[in-house]
Write a structure and sequence with these properties.
The chain has eleven helices and 14 strands. It is α/β, with parallel strands linked by helices. β7 and β8 form a beta hairpin.
């Protein structure tokens, strides 16, 4: 794994900032939105690190702060599963030593494929080798593809490695599949495609304090991402200050209390009452227990929460 001292995150807010940049180091680069850091993305990063080792260059990654679709008003969703900070953290953990981040705007979107290769990859970033997936497209209107890339870079002695998709149950691992699994409440499927447990993070906010009154204090976070698991109750673990606690988490609108009209994420730590206000929590999701529903009264709700807790304890073996 890369020495942490050598890790660098370089952000370019405009096209001029990128074209004026000059990398002193030779790099091997992989390019993409890396919006989920799933097994397919991990395969690209592993290959990049491997080739960088062989040709004694720096393993690097070029990505976008916001999904290009958000700028292009595409019909396809530009919503992200993980926050920008979370993605950067994960990429660094995998051993990539340099992350170049482009703020994708109208000027960047008008860049022709040939200019993208010459001005950015070769002139600014000093690329010696490129690693991409076979469906990689780039430049204005996504006109550039891997065949075009190969034609341009091969005569320049820049190596191009095309990585086959990572297959899981005979289909490529993709962000779309993960998104669908989240909608279907299939957390086991999500975790298999990610190659790790799915998690959400956020800062604990002050809420109604109803959980405490019911005897089940909760920490409420505002998530930092666009896409969430479907509403309902989940078996989770909660990490704060590097401590891991068993928990259950409810995503929803608290329909039993009619004054609640905004979506909340409430986590109850099992067997403990902790003061977490203002703390950053990471909530790791394992399994969907049940959908959210409106209860006839507080006693029904309390009984149900008690049942949910028993299911979670059994799952965690406590």
């Amino acid at each position: 794994m890369a020495h942490p001292m050598s890790f660098q995150l370089i952000e370019f807010k405009t096209l001029d900032e990128i074209t004026n940049y000059q990398s002193k180091d030779k790099i091997t680069i992989t390019i993409g939105s890396f919006d989920a850091i799933h097994l397919g993305h991990q395969k690209l990063m592993q290959k990049t690190i491997e080739i960088a080792k062989e040709n004694q260059t720096i393993p690097a990654l070029l990505t976008f702060k916001f999904h290009p679709r958000k700028t292009l008003n595409s019909t396809k969703s530009g919503a992200t599963i993980f926050s920008y900070e979370h993605r950067i953290e994960l990429i660094e953990k995998f051993g990539i030593q340099r992350i170049f981040v482009i703020y994708f705007d109208d000027t960047v979107s008008q860049l022709s494929p040939i200019d993208f290769i010459h001005k950015i990859l070769i002139h600014s970033l000093n690329c010696q080798a490129i690693v991409t997936g076979e469906d990689f497209c780039f430049g204005k209107n996504r006109q550039g593809n891997v065949h075009f890339l190969k034609e341009i870079v091969q005569p320049l002695n820049i190596s191009l490695t095309i990585v086959e998709p990572f297959l899981f149950t005979n289909a490529p691992v993709s962000t779309t599949r993960i998104r669908n699994y989240l909608l279907e409440k299939n957390m086991e499927g999500v975790n298999q495609l990610l190659g790790r447990e799915y998690s959400l993070s956020g800062i604990v906010q002050k809420a109604h304090g109803r959980g405490k009154l019911l005897g089940f204090p909760t920490a409420n976070i505002i998530p930092e991402t666009d896409i969430l698991p479907t509403q309902g109750v989940y078996i989770t673990k909660t990490i704060y200050k590097n401590k891991t606690k068993f928990s259950i988490t409810n995503i929803g609108f608290n329909p039993t209390f009619s004054d609640h009209n905004s979506l909340s994420i409430e986590t109850h730590i099992l067997n403990e009452d902790l003061s977490l206000h203002g703390e950053r929590l990471e909530i790791i999701f394992f399994k969907f227990i049940r959908p959210e529903k409106k209860f006839n009264g507080i006693d029904d709700l309390k009984n149900q929460i008690e049942e949910d807790i028993q299911i979670a304890k059994k799952f965690h073996g406590i």
